[in-house]
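Aggregate trends can hide what the representation actually does to any particular protein. In the encoding step, the backbone of a single protein was reduced to a row of integers, each denoting a local shape. The record that follows shows the chain in one-letter code together with its fold in token form.

***
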Amino acid sequence: METRAAKKRRLIEEENKRNIGGGRDRLSDLPDDIAHRLLSFLPTKSVARTSVLSKRWRYLWACFPILNFSQVYDPWITDIVATEDIISAVLSRRHENSNIKFFGFKGYLKAQWLHDWIPWLVKHKVEELVLHILSGSGMLDFPRPLLQCDSLRSFTLEGKCPFLRFYVKATSGLPNLHTLSLTGVEFSDDDLFSDSSFPFLEKLTIDDCVGIIHLKICCLKVKDLQIYRIRRMNSLDISGMSLETLKINNCFKDMRVNESCVNVFAPNLQSFCWVGSNFAVKFLIQSFPILRTAQINYHFPFTRIKTQCAVNLFSAFSQVQNLSLYHQIFKILSNIYFELGGLPCSFKNLKTLYISTSLSKSDIPGIACLFKSSPVVHKLGIRIYSSCGPDGEKWDNYLFNGRYTEEQFWEAQAQTLNPLLCHLEVVKIWVPSRDIDHERAINMVRFLLEHGKNLQEMIIAPEYPQAYCVPGWKNKIIVVIEGLPRGSANVKISCVKC
């Protein structure tokens, strides 16, 4: 008597024998969504080759929703005209009701090619469009038919100026676009980004574009705004009730100083980054009441910065929780220290503070100014980088040659900085590798160890990780620090690699 298991095995074997002889095509039985899912893991060339797998798959790739022609480009091998012909053929022969979720292209492009492709992309309701144009011929204006594409959610345009030109009238735009990234594009108008043009825009990135002097962005739904390498920008006006992340990187380098202005209204901002960008003469920045993180990295001559503009900037960060400051910003703070006696605002929510400084004589008053305005910091990181020249700043005679040595200056600040010293729990200091710079680091460590009443841990790390393995490096630092007086009996001193 045949058991159930044996019968099942026999039936499976019989089915397999029938299929070997040209029976049922299992590939053809797959639903479209599953077949498309399988194809999504393959390069575009391989997707086209699947047409030989079965009768049904012969045309299945022609309605595939992901068309990525970024992978087929090879500047040494690819026949440019052949690539254009292939893309045109794929689009023109596409099934009538097959929508395109993603279309990507990378390589050489003639202006006419894109204008030929865009109507097909609009017809098939493209959702995400990515164009990386390495070179081309003819001035490429922003394709007007694309402005009629209600389906487009994400658009990335990257090229080389002045080949690309971005032009959108205030009365037109991409009504349902959520993400827009423009790199190497020439702007024909400064006032492009408004609610009338981009009513649903949530993320905007502008990188290395030209033609921008006065940039105005007023999109109420933008949450993430990133602006990079706009060197000649002279004024920036940002207004966004939904804005949460703002990054300004390497901008305002070739600005007209006396006319420069930055105006930011973003009451819901949570992250602010100003890196490698010059300070405008006018900083009209409203307060950021729920700001979580802020990063300021300034390395330009500070002498032309008006004190009140810097004060306005720091006042906007008064509610920040995590703050990172770098380089010349401490010379600006030193100016505030001597002109105003300190910052008029206090960072009452600041729990984590990171600073990068040479601890030069001109930086120290600025650091003291910052510590004074940071009464509840729990974690403090200090990266001390090797100084590259003499300190010839105007405060030298007052601070060191006249009334104080460096060590005496810090001791004189102990009572003023008592709130910070009472709350400080963890300190990590990156020490310079050069022996000549060790004294500056040890003076800072001595002050924090002696007056940090609740200090739990002092972590010492080298400026560069490889210095950790240099024979004697730890002894030069740790032996000295171990012998310093401590205000907290529970403080632990440790040395780490980085």
User: Anything to note?
Assistant: The longest strand covers residues 128-137. The first helix runs from residue 4 to 20. DSSP finds 13 helices and 24 strands in the chain.
